[in-house]
Every structure is written in C-alpha cells, then in structure tokens.
Design a protein that fits this description.
alpha/beta; FAD/NAD(P)-binding domain; Enolase-like, domain 1; 3 domains; five-stranded antiparallel β-sheet; 16 helices
C-alpha cells in the first residue's frame, strides 16, 4: 500500500495534520515511538497548567484576607497534587488524544522508531512505508547545559518532574524562561522552597522588559528567590542536598535541581542527512511553507525551530498539509502570540518596543501604557499588579504585551488588529464590555482616537465662527 502522507510524530503538529489530512480522504499513516499527545500532553502545557491551577488555589487560601475572609495556611498534599495532574493527562489521553479516535478517522497509527530511508520512504522496524509526502513532527527535548557535575549529580526536567511520587521540599531551577518561571511560581505556592537562577539580566528575555521586571517582583514578593545574572559554574552533591555554585562563588542548596534551559530539536536517528534534509542549529531547515530542501519532505513544530508552542505547531501542521495537496501556497504566519501562564499571565504578540524602534525607526514609534491599578475590574478582583503595553508604528498596531489575569485570553484582540494592519484608534470604535480587563485596552485606543480628533479642532472653531457670522443681520 502506498500512502499519500506519512507523519512522523503524533504530538501537537502531527495530531492536527493527521486529522486534517484524514478529513480530505487521504491515505495517512502516523508513526509514534512513545505516547500519542507529545510534549504538550505529557511534559508541557497540560501538566504545567494543572500544577499552576492547584498552586493558585493554595495562594488564594493563603491570601484570603485580601477579600474579607480569614487567611489560612493550606494543608497541601503534594503527592495528591501530582496524582491530579496525571489524572487530567489520562482523561485527555483516553478521549481527544486517544489513538483509536484517529484510527476511526482512517489514520493508521504505526508504533515504533521511524527512519527515513528515501525521499518517499519511512522505515519502522522491519516495515517500510512508501508515501507521496512525509511530514516530520518529532518535537524537541529539554536542553541540558554543559555545567561540570550536573550529569553526575542528577537533575529533573519537564520530562520527569510531573512523574514524581514525592516532590522535593526545595528546588533550584536553572533557567528563567517560560518553563522555569511557571514552575518557580507554582512550586513556591505549593510550599516548596524555590531558587530561580537566570543567567541573563532579566527573566523571560523574549518578552517586553518592563513587564518581565514587574513579574519578577511579583515572584519575589511571593517568596521565590530570584537571582539574575547568575551563571552556574559547577554542581556538587553534599550529603542530603545538591549545590549549584555560581561563577562568582555563590552557593545555592536544594534537595533537587530542575533544568529549564530551553529546548533541543529531536532530529537524531531519523536519517535526515542521508536523505538530504538539512539540519541547522535550531532544527530542520524549512522555508515559509514548511518545506525542507527535499520537495517531498516537510517539517513542523519544535523540530523546525520556528516557534516552540503547541498552537504554532498545530497551525504549521495544517498549513503544511494544505501546501502538499492543494493548489497554491500554504505559507505559515509569522504573527504568533504566546503566553507565560504565571499569575498574572504575561502575553505577547508582535514586536516589542525595542524591536519596533529597530525595524521602523524611533520617530515613527509610539508606546502606549495602561497600568491595571487604574482598571476598575482589576481593583475589584484584587489583581491590580499588571500593565498593558501597546506598540504602534505610524499609528498602526505592531505589538501588544499584557501582564494581567487571563492575558492569554486578552491577547487575541490586538493580534487580530495587528494581522489586519489596523490603527490603534480603530479599536475604540468597538464597544467593550464593562467592567473587564480589556476596558483598559479600549481606553488606550480611545486616547489615540481623541488625539487624532484634536488634529481637526480648527474645523470646529472655524464652524463656530462661520455660524456666528451667519446670524448677523
């Protein structure tokens, strides 16, 4: 049997691509060496958000006096929290990500290690799948920094931290990106002592700096020991603790070390070089249509190294299938919003202020800000620590950055405005529900509209004078 499409990897990109391709009546095989669902279900989005949800409940109990109730120190059963995480994962695995669901669509799920043995051939064990097109969706794995003693001492990553039976009482987290920051807040709120070590001078270096700085202070206020400009030089074990030593001689002790230092694309063992597929520092090299240098082979998601997000992988998977089997081009979008799901959440779409100045020039850029301390809804919810930052170039919205509760929900309005090349003042014409957090965004748009209207104030004055003359006898 010759397939129309063989998908290698049933994570976020592979699942979307398989469902789309099957709906078109194509003959599809999907190869998976481990569990269907990929990083998102088993080591990323789902378990981390479940952990954050439990941690938020503990935080609300601890700070209930802010809402007129008696604050209590929660009795936290950490093994029960971890069991809840695994239960949620299993619910999804048994329903939306169940392999039998895809088999019912007509997708043949093939278990085993895949290796490309030709431009139209994929070997899985003793079997070779012949196909018109190949789609690589093999994802990524945690990157491990080359710190002396780290491997010998042992450490956790996102791949095994959610499989623990008994979580540690203290952790040192190496890395201040989204994974490290989310874990730091969640574990701290659950009563685990957390030291967050970031090599750079700020957390979340891809996000708007002023919002990342506010979030760092929120973490510190909650008890996370945030250490910026701290690079690990050595890791050792001393009796019952592990010690991270910095280049400046500082020592950070913890029961366990969690490495959250980025991701590495999973390309080994696939036979890519032998097939002529180029692999670069960020993963498989692709064009704007997710094509490799081999016309029959595409790659999407983390393995292609564009944006390491579930939603981006899904978009790329669908567009790659479109490009393979439909006339025209399936060019993927470069406008990818993302959110770090701390409390408050930090959402991002488009350009930061610095990126906008570099691309468009200082004179053409305006940055509008609204602190949540002036938001009626934020005050009512007791969540006034946050800010909205909107970036315009020649009055058109080119970037939006939100530090607020549910910022991940709020970011889609400005994302649409950026995609449609709208002016900020255009958002003021849409009535926003009051009181909501998005009212602050509407106020910034209204201020832009008022400024624009004031340019034509001379017409009002002219009409006033003209009207006065017309009433003279």
């Amino acid at each position: 049997m010759r397939y129309d499409l063989v998908i290698v990897g049933m994570g976020s990109g592979g699942l979307v691509a398989a469902e789309f391709a099957a709906s078109l009546g194509l003959r599809v095989a999907a190869v998976e060496r481990s569990r269907v669902g990929g990083d998102c279900l088993w080591t990323g989005c789902v378990p981390s958000k479940a952990l954050l949800a439990s941690a938020k409940v503990a935080h609300h109990l601890r700070t209930a006096d802010r809402y007129g109730m008696r604050a209590v120190e929660p009795e936290i059963d950490l093994p029960a929290v971890w069991r809840r995480i695994r239960g949620i994962q299993q619910q999804i695995a048994d329903t939306d990500d169940d392999p039998t669901r895809y088999e019912a669509m007509g997708v043949e799920v093939v278990r085993g290690e895949a290796r490309l043995v030709g431009k139209n051939s994929v070997a899985v064990g003793e079997r070779t799948l012949e196909t018109r097109r190949i789609l690589l969706c093999t994802g990524s794995r945690p990157a491990v920094p080359a710190v002396p003693g780290l491997e010998e001492t042992g450490f956790l990553t996102s791949e095994n931290v959610f499989e623990l039976e008994r979580p540690p009482r203290s952790v040192a987290i190496m890395g201040g990106g989204p994974i490290g920051v989310e874990l730091a807040q969640a574990l701290n709120r659950l009563g685990i002592r957390v030291t967050l070590l970031q090599r750079g001078d700020r957390l979340l270096p891809r996000d708007e700096p002023e919002l990342a700085a506010i979030l760092a202070e929120v973490l510190r206020a909650e008890g996370v020991d945030v250490r910026l400009g701290t690079e690990a030089s050595r890791v050792v074990r001393e009796r019952e603790v592990k010690v991270v030593e910095s280049a400046t001689g500082e020592r950070f002790e913890a029961e366990e070390i969690v490495v959250a230092a980025g991701r590495t694309p999973t390309t080994d063992g696939l036979g890519l070089e032998e097939t002529g597929v180029e692999v670069g520092a960020r993963g498989v090299v692709v064009d704007e249509r997710m094509r490799t240098g081999v016309p029959s082979i595409y790659a999407v998601g983390d393995v292609a190294g564009r944006y390491l997000f579930t939603h981006s992988a899904g978009h790329e998977g669908a567009m790659a299938v479109r490009d393979m089997f439909f006339p025209g081009k399936g060019k993927v979008s470069d406008l990818v919003p993302w959110t770090t799901f701390t409390d408050p959440e930090l959402a991002h779409v488009g350009l930061t202020a610095a990126e906008a100045r570099e691309r468009h020039g200082e004179a053409k850029i305006a940055v509008e800000r609204a602190d949540l301390s002036h938001s009626d809804r934020a005050r009512a919810d007791g969540a006034a620590e946050g800010r909205i930052v909107l970036v315009t170039a020649r009055d058109k919205l080119v970037g939006a950055h939100i530090l607020a509760p549910a910022a991940g929900e709020m970011i889609h309005e400005p994302a649409l405005a950026i995609r449609e090349r709208m002016k900020l003042r255009n958002l003021a014409s849409m009535i926003h529900v009051y009181p909501t957090m998005t009212t602050s965004m509407n106020l910034l748009a209204a201020e832009a509209a008022y400024r624009y209207a004031r340019r034509f104030g001379w017409l009002i004055r002219l009409n006033r004078r003209g009207g006065s003359r017309s009433r003279r006898p």
